[in-house]
Amino acid sequence: MHELGIARDILDIAVAEAEKHGGCRITRVDLEVGVLRGVVPENLAFLFGHVAMGTIAEGARLAIEEQPARVACEACGPVEARGFTIACPACGSPAVKVEGGDALRILSIDIDDSLPAREA
Amino acid sequence: MKVDIERQIQQSAEETAGKIRDLLAARKVFAVNLISSPGSGKTTLIESAIEALRGKKRVSVVEGDIETDIDAARIRKHGVQVHQINTRSSCHVPPFLLLSALDHIDLDATDLLFVENVGNLVCPAEVPLGEDLRVVALSVAEGDEKPLKYPLVFKTSDILVITKTDLLPYVKFDPGRVKAAARAVNPRVEIFEVSAVTGSGISSFLERIEELCGRKTG
User: From the DSSP assignment, how many helices (H) and strands (E) are in chain A?
Assistant: First the structure.
């Protein structure tokens, strides 16, 4: 949900960062998105493409790295899960605690500094 | 050229929620974020709480709706502080609107603050409001598979209140099935079954709220 707001925030951060480097065209944005965030990657990529139109990020590829949910199982130790299940994916025990999987971070951007900076 | 950024997106919602949490801690106010589909009985639950806790806890209410102050008018009749938020296009109460709504509530005269979120099982689940307790309500008319279909709200809630249990003879709803589904996504969830019409289960739910509130406000 709320991929549009997230896409706008990504664009703002990416453009501000690229402007620090001369306002070169952004070719790629790398993100880390936890599965517990409920973000649909295809929606986010589509909406990012839409909000980026007419900016230095137009046409940039949104590369989304999904962060799995991390659960701590009393028997198995730390295990990764793909979604909301609370049973241990390895042994099926319900004695687990969800410890991570809600990241929503912009990791880096790629800028093409071989091209001249575009006039806004 | 790769430029490392390593920055949290949408930090501002979490930061604002943190400000709300700090404000409520300083004023010793226990806040409940009440979430459900439209029509599950959130406002009725709050009305029951106001009446049951009268003289024990000073209750204030922030009402969230897309439009109108119908709910605030209902709450106001019970003689407690209430402020209505109209979110217009937003399908949930965002933390910045709650923070400004709290300017209209005398927090020093409040022990227990109910925030009635916009009727929606999806978006409010993702938005922290700095609350002490998250309560999700589900009426028996909505079906018993909702925790599996909308897992995030059930996963992030401390309490599930099954409402309108007086309608059980007329609807296809298996309380055992909904409890199992809720516990599958959130094994620590506390579950209460209530009917505002018959009064069944209301007092045990509100005793629990009172107990949790008392731990913070004394």
Answer: 2, 6
